[in-house]
Amino acid sequence: MGGPEKLLIIVDDQQSLVNLINLSFKKWTNNNNIKTVLNTRAIEVLDYLKINEHYITVLISDQRMPEANGIDLIKTVSEKYPEIVSILMSGFSESAELGKIMEKDVFAFIQKPWVLDELRKTVESAFKLAEKRYYEFQQREI
User: Fold this and answer.
1) Using one digit for the tens of pLDDT, what is the confidence trace for 83-102?
2) What angle do CA 45, 52, 8 make, to 5 degrees?
3) C-alpha distances in angstroms, 83 versus 15, 66, 115?
């Protein structure tokens, strides 16, 4: 294997949407050797990252979830794992909250319902940035 593994984490409290995104990306993730992790709870993402932090990682998170919203999850992930690239999705307008962290923590905002080609292009771009960040952080540790 040539280099670190890639990981796509999808979190949404609606299992059907998590499954739909996963199914939509299945061929692409398989062709690009990207492991996919599906979650319906934000806390599960944080627990997973504690033991699986050595990946080139992209996180796709829904904004409105019962236990923690996507912005809070992304803020926490960005503080603990700044090399991870995060994409926020919502069916609602989140402009007031989103504006606070968009520049620093959120790579892209995807409005639901999404257009699959646009979402795929966004995820591809996010992985390019995640790979760059990963290697930059590896260099700092040397």
Assistant:
1) 999 999 987 765 555 565 56
2) 60
3) 27, 26, 26
What's the chain's Rg over C-alpha atoms?
A: 14
**Each residue of 77-87: pLDDT tens digit?**
999 999 999 99
- Please enumerate in sequence order all residues whose Cβ is within 8 A of that of 67, keeping only pairs 6 or more positions apart, or say none: 41, 42, 43
- Burial of 49: CB neighbours in 10 Å, binned 0-12, 13-18, 19+: buried
CA end-to-end span of the chain: 22
- For residue 49, what are its two tokens? 């990252």
Amino acid type, 68? A
Q: State the pLDDT at residue 54.
A: 83
Token code pair at residue 61: 């998170």
Average pLDDT over residues 59-71: 88
